[in-house]
Specification:
Largest sheet: 4 strands, antiparallel
Strand content: 5-15%
Radius of gyration: 22 Å
Order of helices and strands: HEEHEEHEEHH
Number of strands: 6
Helix content: 25-40%
Structural class: alpha+beta
Shape: globular
């Protein structure tokens, strides 16, 4: 696999993990981009199969990329549910690139994380459909008009 192919595959996998909700504060991250923008990245990514030098595992433990929500809670993105064939391709690519570049697997994983983040952030945000209203509230099909609050009066002019 090329750098571009591995980055594209990882991005597609991680985009598929959304929407994601913080279990502490309930903040909803609709997309990977929302998550990257609204969280604080934590220490290096780790892949436990790589740590155990088990690049051809039949039962992957997977890897974790951690970040803090605005509320301070730690959130994780895990590769545990990645399809086995894709896991094997990714692990082998990391092993080969580590040898080729003379870098540790952790450095390769961080480079991948950085590249996916750069790619996601380089794109302008997509227009998201409005969130559905909470139950008990009228939705867009309710024919009852919503009350309109009066406009706030402008502040008095100084001077």
């Amino acid at each position: 696999m090329t750098d571009a192919e591995i980055i594209r595959a990882l991005r597609k996998f991680y985009e598929g993990l959304f929407p994601k909700v913080c279990s502490n504060c309930g903040r909803r991250f609709a997309t990977l981009r929302d998550y990257i923008v609204a969280t604080q990245r934590l220490w290096p990514s780790v892949d436990y199969d790589i740590e155990l030098d088990n690049y051809k595992t039949l039962k992957p433990i997977g890897g974790l990329a951690m970040a803090n929500c605005l509320c301070g809670s730690t959130l994780t993105l895990s590769s545990r549910e990645m399809p086995l064939s894709q896991t094997h391709l990714m692990l082998e690519w990391v092993r080969a690139e580590s040898e080729r570049r003379g870098s540790s697997p952790t450095e390769i994983l961080e480079w991948l994380r950085d590249e996916v983040r750069k790619q996601v952030l380089a794109e302008s945000p997509r227009e998201q459909p409005p969130e559905p209203m909470k139950s008990g509230m009228p939705d867009s099909t309710d024919p009852t008009p919503m009350p309109v609050a009066p406009a706030a009066e402008p502040p008095p002019r100084q001077g």
